[in-house]
Amino acid sequence: MRPDETDVTVKLLSESFVESMKLPDWYLPLVSYLVKQYLFERRAAIPHAVTLLGFVKWKDGGEDEGELAGTVEICFNKRGANDSPPTPTPPKDSPYICNMTVNKPLRRRGIGWNLLKASEELISQMSCVREVYLHCRMVDSAPFNMYTRAGYNVVKTDSILVLLLLQSRKHLMLKKLPVPTNDLELEMSGSDPEHVQVGA
User: Fold this and answer.
1) HSE value, Cβ hemisphere, 13 Å, CA-based, for 185
2) Is residue 72 classed as helix, strand or coil in its secondary structure?
3) Which of 25, 130, 27 has the alpha carbon at shortest distance from 76?
4) DSSP 25
5) Tens-place pLDDT, residues 41-80
6) Which of 50, 103, 119, 162 has the smallest number of Cβ neighbours within 10 A?
7) Cα–Cα distance for residue pair 161/180, rounded to 1 Å
């Protein structure tokens, strides 16, 4: 995420958080403020953590960069880890994928899959640790199915007591990435460059 892409990223993440937490729309300015502060703080963690953006380029779109389709954050190691990660807590010394969202009108088009695969490819290049973690809320069946199809397995689930804190229960999921054998394997691993571009 470049500095000039911060505002569109804040908008996308804020709308997603308000939707997922079932908050009234009037919470959007507050959530946007908090997300913007979070993203500025996370920029200090580069290169130990990055935010990737995915853009959709329409065939008749000309030379523009396209429409922001989704975003995902990657923490590569302990220095890039969040200070207060959600529970169940992932190991701080392992790569962690979080805050993935896709623009609502563009969902169910493979964008989340491409963001996930781009995250895994970047982790393979930036980290020697092959165990990658992420969280998935128990109520989110579509993302859960995507993560399972991608090879992630549940390693731990929140206690039912988190409901007392008005939080959704979450699964901590793990995938062991294969060790890439060469650069060609990294390039051939599944994104469709005609439709989705992902960049840091």
Assistant:
1) 9
2) strand
3) 130
4) G
5) 999 999 999 999 999 987 776 666 788 999 999 999 999 9
6) 162
7) 40
The answer to whether the CB of 51 falls within 8 A of the CB of 72 is yes
Res 39 pLDDT > 80: yes
Annotated catalytic residues are 147
Return phi, psi of residue 143, to 5°. -60, -40
Report the alpha-carbon distance of residue 46 to residue 49 in Å, rounded: 5
The SS3 of residue 3 is helix
Q: How many CB atoms neighbour CB 182 within 10 A? A: 8
134 near 152, Cβ under 8 Å?
yes
**Tens-place pLDDT, residues 121-150:** 999 999 999 999 999 999 999 999 999 999
